[in-house]
Every structure is written in C-alpha cells, then in structure tokens.
Specification:
heterodimer; A: 116 residues; mainly beta; four-stranded antiparallel sheet; B: 110 residues; globular
Chain lengths: 116, 110
C-alpha cells in the first residue's frame, strides 16, 4: 500500500517567494497533520484536519502560513512570503479515525525546505 | 500537556536487548503512552502504545509501571536498523494531537 506521499522532497528558493508543499494522505484516512522539524525547536505540530476541516491551527507560526485540504486525498501548506527562518523539514502525517479519535499516525518522508 | 523525560542518548550493541526509559510523573488517568521512532532522514513511525497493561507487538514491548509514572520501551534484539530517535509521548484520550519532545537517540554498534 502507498504511504503518505509528499512533494517536493527538496525545495530551495529565495526569500520572498511563495512556497507550496503538497501532501497525499493514505487512502481512507480521516485525519491529516502538518508538522515542522528544526534542530532548535524539534518536531512541532502546525495544523491538523479531520474530514477535510481544519480542527486546530494553533501551531501555525503566523499569517504567512496557510494550509488547505480541498478533498480527502490532497492537502497543501503554503508560505507566502517565505523567510530564511522557515527553513526546516516539513512532514505530513495521516491517520484513521476510531472511537472518535485519531489512531496512530503515518508520516511521509518530508519536504526539506531551504530559504536563501 | 503532561510532560515526559527521556535520556538524551543511549548505546547498544547489535543483538542485545535495549531498554529505553521514559518518566511521566504527571500522567493523568486518561493519558495513553505512545512511542514513535524516527530513522535518519525519514519521518517518525509508530512503534507501540499502551494505557495500563504491558503491550507487545512485532516491533517492541512496552512495560508500564504499576503507578504509570514511568514506562520502558524494550527492543528484544537490537539491529543496526534500530538506530533512531525514540520519542515517548503522552496523549490524552480526548485529543488527536501528539506533542513530540526531544526523544532518546539510540546508537547501535555492530
């Protein structure tokens, strides 16, 4: 079975540019999570969706970040304008719902983002 | 969120058992104990979780103290592929969120 698919795997761009990260969750999963990982701050939850609806975006750093989930098989995380401090590895994860809660999360391989 | 404390790093030799400790003295009665690991250059992967009783699966065993204030992840025979950062996470029964700490970096030597 295909796991969580993220694209691109690597992105290098100049500050001020718009960056779009993409995620395809595992088919049949109800939850989708976006995380960011840096050496300084570790792995942080940015936002998560349940049935395509954003549930908690309290981890989104600022208005430059936005996330959407237009359908059950696709989500995007956008940064506009990008800044060097946004450089990190961004992970997407998905999970199935059971008993009203998310089960174990399945992570993609991440997008390594470098803002010059 | 209840906090967990793990050693920064541990070492093991291949084919030996590894016991990774986690302290969670402020755990509440409805917190589940989850373990994930992150191999180099990969996303985290689920290992095991439990509430009160010890748990076993194909990857590992989870031993939970009777007072639930600590737990131990047991890898019965370490392999080189088990070298990773292991995260112990408490998750309340009424939340979908996982809050990752700094974890334990496990090195496995041949």
């Amino acid at each position: 079975d295909a796991g969580v698919i993220q694209s691109p795997r690597h992105e290098v761009t100049e500050m001020g540019q718009e960056v779009t990260l993409r995620c395809k969750p595992i088919s049949g999963h109800d939850y989708l999570f976006w995380y960011r990982q840096t050496m300084m701050r570790g792995l942080e939850l940015l936002i998560y969706f349940n049935n395509n609806v954003p549930i908690d975006d309290s981890g989104m750093p600022e208005d430059r970040f936005s996330a959407k989930m237009p359908n059950a098989s696709f989500s995007t995380l956008k940064i506009q304008p990008s800044e060097p401090r946004d450089s990190a590895v961004y992970f997407c994860a998905s999970s199935r719902q059971t008993g009203g809660l998310a089960k174990s999360q399945h992570f993609g391989d991440g997008t390594r983002l470098s803002i010059l | 969120d209840a906090k967990t404390t793990q050693p920064n790093s541990m070492e093991s030799n291949e084919e030996e058992p590894v016991h990774l400790p986690c302290n969670h003295s402020t755990i509440s009665g409805t917190d589940y104990i989850h373990w994930y690991r992150q191999l180099p250059s990969q996303g985290p992967e689920y290992v095991i979780h439990g509430l009160t009783s010890n748990v076993n699966n194909r990857m590992a065993s989870l031993a939970i103290a009777e007072d639930r204030k600590s737990s131990t992840l047991i890898l019965h025979r370490a392999t080189l592929r088990d070298a990773a950062v292991y995260y112990c996470i408490l998750r309340s029964y009424n939340t979908d969120k996982l809050i990752f700490g700094t974890g334990t970096r496990l090195q496995v030597f041949p």
